[in-house]
Prior knowledge:
single chain
Amino acid sequence: MRAPTWAARAGAFLGVGAALALVAAFAIAAPAAAHNYYVSSTPAINEVVTTLPDEFTVTTNDNLLDLNGTGGGFFIEVKGPDGLYYGDGCVTVNGASVSMPAALGPAGEYTLAWQVVSTDGHTVSDSFHFTWQPAPDAETSTTGSSTVPNCHGTAVGIPDSTAPPADNSSADILWIGGAVVAVALAIVATLMLLRPRKAPPAA
């Protein structure tokens, strides 16, 4: 049987290049896709709140990573129209949600900022607005703070220094190893295709 032509070799190498590109794109995109993302919250984004909830809560799509059970790396910050912060800064991590006891001051637009530690060990943060519009006779207003509230001496928004750092080396090794194996298989398959076949024995 004739050896593969130049066109066949070129096509095979182009196929290998495409396979490498796909593997690289998958290896890069897959870890990023593992980050948790916002699903819902109390209050909701841009909601007009008329009754003070028990807690401010942000819920993500997957369980959160609270390594030492103290909420290190997690926070919820609520800032009012007067520029003051409300709430005690004490967060609770429960499955896919992080929450803080609710407290608000004067009526107006508030900003809720949050940060969580994703299931892949990376932090994810964002913020949104909501409007506090209590009934005229409601007595729910509390005194705000000009500084970010602390919880048990740990500043909200600053990861607990006692929390061990997230180790992502194992996950990275798995992704890299999978990419290398896929590339090796693509190369072996291409070489098998390009290898000249033996002519059948003469009758």
